[in-house]
Amino acid sequence: MVRLRFEDHDSKRYRPEYEKSIVEDMQWLGFRVDEDGGKVLRQSERHETYEKILSQLRGRGLVYACECSRRDIQAQAGMTRSEGEEVPYQNVCRHRGLAEGEGRSVRLVFEPGPVTYRDLVGGLKTEDPALRFGDLMIRDRHGDWTYQFAATVDDIEQGITLVVRGDDIEPSTARQVALASLIGRETPPVFLHHPLILDRDGRKLSKRDNDTGVRELREAGWEPERVLGLACFRVGLISRDRPVHAEEVVNLFLNRLDEETS
Length: 262
Description:
The chain is of the alpha/beta class and 262 residues long. 37% of the residues lie in helices and 14% in strands. It has a domain at 1-44.
C-alpha cells in the first residue's frame, strides 16, 4: 500500500488535475494507493500544523521577519544568480526587529556548524548550510510555506526514514537535516539522491516543457514493469535494466539500505 503526500504548498503553481494524474500513474505502475479515511496528506490542508511548529520556533527566538527580495539578496551578496544556483542570504534582517506581516517572509536562524547525513549513493556527507545558504526561509512573502519547511515537518510526522529524490535537490538536504534537528528530530533520514534523466539538451525533464513522463511512456506502449525497471536501474538498485514489478521495489530499497548501513 502506497501512502501519498501531495506537496501542494505553492498555491500559485498547484493544479487539481496534477493530483488525479499522479494517482492514475501510480495505480498503472502497480502500486495500491491508499486514499481512504483521509490518509492522503495534502500540505495545503496543514496550515495549523505548520503554524504550531513556527510558533514553537518563534518562542525560542529562532525566527524573524525579512523584507529582502531576491534582487536585494543578489545585491547584498554582490553576485547574480546563474541557472540552478542559489545566492546565499547575508542574514541582513536578522537583527532588525521587523514585524511579521504581508509582503515579508519568515526566516529561521541557522548558526554555523557542520551537518552530517548519509547518502546511499555518495556515502557520508558533511556540510555547513549556514555558511552556504544563510538563514532559511520557511514562509515566503506571499504567505506560502516553503518546500524546505513543509517537507521537513511532514517527514517527521510521517516517520520517513528513507528519502529518495533527484540529485538536483541535494543542496536542500543539509538544510532540512538542520531544520529537523531544531524541531526535535534526533536521527535524520537516510537519503538516496539519484541522477536525473535529461533531455537531448541536458535539461531535466519537466511537465512545464511537455517532456516525457509516465503517462507518455504508457501511451507509447511501455509496460509498467519496464518503466519501474528503468527507474530502479537509474537509481542504482539493480545492476542492469530489467523489468521490475511494483511489489519488488520496496525490497530493493530495503536491501540497499541494509548493505550501506551494515
